[in-house]
Amino acid sequence: MKLRFGLAVCLALLAADVATAAPAYRTRAIVMPGSGYLVADGTSVVTLEVLIDVKKGAPAPKKAVVAAEAGEVLATKINGPGRLLIFYKMPPRRDAGRIGLTIKLEDPSGGEVEESFSLSIEEPKAPSVELLVTPELLRADTPETIKVAASVKGNNLEGLRIATDRGTLAPTDTTGDTKQLYRETSVEAKGFPPDAPSYLLFLAAASSLRGYAGATGGASVMAPIRLSVEIAPGTELVVEGAESPPAPVPAPADGRTVMEGVEVRYGARVRAFQKKGRSKSELSVVIPTGQVPTGLAIGIPGQTSADSGIGPSIMVAIPPSPVGGKVFWPEITVEGAPVIDTLTLSERVKVLVIKRPGEPKDIKVLLDDQPAGTINFDAGRGTSIEAKSVPVERDERAAALISVKDGNGSYSDFPEPRVRMQPGGEVPFKRIAVGKYRVSLPPSTPGATGSKLELTAEIPPPPVVAGDPLEYIDDQLSLKLSGPPPALRTQEPPPPPPPPSDSGDAGGGSVVVERPSAPGKSAVGLSAYVFAGRSFSKLLSFGLGLGADYRPPVLDGRLSVRGGLEFARGSSSGQVALDAGPSEATATVGGLLIPIEVGYVLVGDRSFELLALLGAVLRYEAGALEVGGDNAGGGSRFGFGLRAGAEGGLRFGAGSLVLRLGVDGLLTSAKGLGPQEGFDESLFALRGDLGFRWWF
Predict the structure, then answer these.
(1) How many angstroms separate the CA atoms of 58 and 408, rounded?
(2) Which of 318, 666, 332, 685 is nearest to 533 (CA)?
């Protein structure tokens, strides 16, 4: 008994020693909670957040010491029991690569825990961005809708933003994924001065985890102007560079010569000459300008967090020269933040490296003391999300409020949440304030009164730079349906447009979607196509077909269900053995095919998609065999077969040009379509289709 008691005491003391020796803290991951790029540029200061698991009952760390092999740790801040902020200055390019980071945590009693991590600090790598403005030339007296399209390609894309100096851009979605983003929008162009050329300026900015990119474009406004000069009597005034070359104007007796209605576009190099015979001399003339911005400034997507960091945050663009040639940059002034550096992206685009504010505020950019844009620096990346029911409004069966907050409890728009309903897939929502979004289920939502739908709202975690991977941050909510269920199936309402940006960007036309939304509704396509094939029994076939493609709102719109109707005809030539010897023969097969297929989109974006398809074919076919010019017999039958293939679709306007390659006639032969001789071969064939599909 005493032995057992002593052994129990020893085990208890040993367990207490082990518990005491267990570390009080464990670093789970290092993330980027705000703006910045983890790249070796020697200038940027990025806020890193260390997520710490604190042992139950242990106090918060009292002190933290962080050391880096390259770069510089400027400061640290313990921000609660499980969070440590590190202000880290990036190393120069020569030190790019894997960099060791050591974190030492000390508890109030003096105990220490030390852990080491490896950070990947690469050289900057910018994505590729393109901006297309149509039309690029318009008349001052003719109102017109200008269409603007921007696209960006890269890795780990964070956002795409378009802004203009004039009017409000139409609210549209940014679509795509982390490797390619695309957005189309438009603006109404009207109200320009009728007697002077003007210019509309557009700027697109994009960002990824390792760099940024920008592109500028615009529309030149053409207007008739009046030129007045004094030239010697007996000479004539000649103008070059106008849209339509005006006729020379002879000088009057007093030499005061006026040329009316000279059509001039903004940016054109217009020159005036005094001409007499074959000799001419250039004159100095003044070309008036109408509405032309000094410039345009917007925030780079994902780089406008109030995190006290330093880095490229604001992009500035200026219009081209009014008469062509070299542009001259105005003086840039930033109110509300110190400018650390100014980087030249292109002749007309620059990027401002600033010290970002530590608290939410507006930063104003002035060009030659003229406002170019106001950028709102707000909360950092969202680290928590909440979904709760709210009272329904008119024409709603249920409603929810989604809130996103950063680590300090401030509402954040970055990143935008994703909302899914079970059943029903992804659902649209409307932004009502910073970090707040309303989900509204319309009257067409199926379901009995009082039944519940499960809603999930989620955001991706902050980018992990070291440590364990993090799961998506989400919240679930059961929504109870009110009101009567829909009597008939109706069309789903179009998703509500994104709300106007409150970022204060110039012109009020900036919209940024940090996380592209996946398709949330069904689509139908109708197609017409021609096809040709060759079986392994040397039967050449061709035909035409009509088809329908249905994309249900599941699997992110990647599932395809197809049906159609095809008319096919085929023939082959050869020899058959008769009693009199071999004779030339021709076999002909034709019929009606009804394919039913299921496909999956392997690769898909706005301009191209690649599908894999597998299906069955109902076949009604007739055949005939001609030997030596005489009909040797024929027949018809219903049959069944399989087909498989791959299809590529290239987007054109409202439809797609499609090309398909595959195999057809699996499990199918010509048996029963004619005499046994010559009609017992397999119809298994290689086949190609070419057609066009219209989407609705």
Answers:
(1) 22
(2) 685
What pLDDT shows up at residue 16? 42
d(CA 314, CA 120) in angstroms, rounded, equals 25
Q: Quick check: 180 and 166 in contact, CB under 8 A?
A: no
Residue 89: what pLDDT?
A: 95
CA distances from 65 to 84, 102, 431 (A): 10, 8, 41
In angstroms, what CA-CA distances link 307 with 46, 125, 356, 407?
A: 8, 23, 6, 11
206/159 Cα distance (integer angstroms): 6
Q: Does the pLDDT of residue 509 top 60, yes or no?
A: no
Distances 597 to 46, 493, 609, 651, 658 between C-alpha atoms, Å: 52, 29, 17, 22, 16
Give the span between the Cα atoms of 9 and 513, in whole angstroms. Answer: 63
Cα 688 → chain centroid? 33
- Burial of residue 568 (CB within 10 Å: 0-12, 13-18, 19+) is buried
Place of tokens 């998703």: 495
Measured CA to CA, the distance from residue 145 to residue 481 in angstroms comes to: 42
Check residue 444 and give its pLDDT.
85
Alpha-helical regions (H) of 152-242? none
Short-list 160, 162, 146, 239, CA closest to 199: 146
* CA–CA separation, 246 and 248 (whole Å): 6
Report yes or no: 171 and 497 within 8 Å, Cβ to Cβ: yes
Res 577: pLDDT: 60
Contact assessment for residue 287 and residue 323, using Cβ atoms and an 8 Å cutoff? yes
- DSSP H or E segment with residue 323: none
How far is it, in rounded angstroms, from Cα 306 to Cα 377? 5
Distance CA 612, CA 598 (A): 9
Whether this prediction's pTM lies above 0.90 is answered by: no
The H-or-E segment that residue 195 falls in is none
- Helices (runs of H) and strands (runs of E) counted in the chain: 1, 45
Bigger pLDDT: 491 vs 122: 122
Q: Which residues contact 560 (CB under 8 A, 6 or more apart)?
A: 549, 550, 551, 597, 598, 599, 600, 601, 611, 613
- Burial category of 41 from C-beta neighbours within 10 Å (exposed 0-12, middle 13-18, buried 19 and up): buried
Whether the Cβ atoms of residue 655 and residue 694 lie closer than 8 Å to each other: yes
List, as one string, the DSSP characters of 301-312. Answer: TT--B-SS-EEE
Cα dihedral across residues 471, 472, 473, 476: positive or negative? negative
The answer to whether 565 and 571 are in contact (CB under 8 A) is no
Q: Which residue type occupies 593?
A: L
CA gap 138, 265 in Å, rounded? 9
Measured from the Cβ of residue 467, the count of other Cβ atoms closer than 10 Å reads 16
What band does 351 get if pLDDT is binned at 50, 70 and 90?
very high
According to DSSP, residue 495 is labeled P
Minimal CA–CA distance to 225: which of 82, 88, 323?
A: 323
pLDDT at site 11:
41
Task: Using only the alpha carbons of the chain, give its radius of gyration.
Answer: 35
Q: Which two tokens stand for residue 422?
A: 């079970």
Amino acid at 48: L
pLDDT, tens digit, 9 for 90 and up, residues 520-579: 456 788 999 999 998 887 888 899 999 999 888 777 678 899 999 999 988 887 776 655
Cβ neighbours around 603 below 10 Å, total: 10
CB of 307 closer than 8 Å to CB of 407: no
Amino acid type, 248: P
Count of alpha carbons within 13 Å of 605, Cβ hemisphere only?
Answer: 14
Element at 140 (helix H, strand E): none
495-500, Cβ contacts within 8 angstroms, sequence gap of 24 or more: 495/173, 495/428, 495/520, 495/521, 496/428, 496/429, 496/430, 496/440, 497/171, 497/172, 498/171, 498/172, 498/173, 498/431, 499/171, 499/430, 499/431, 499/432, 500/168, 500/171
Q: Are 183 and 146 in contact (CB under 8 A)?
A: no
How far apart are the C-alpha atoms of 686 and 663, rounded to whole Å?
5
Q: Is 477 helix (H, G, I), strand (E, B) or coil?
A: strand
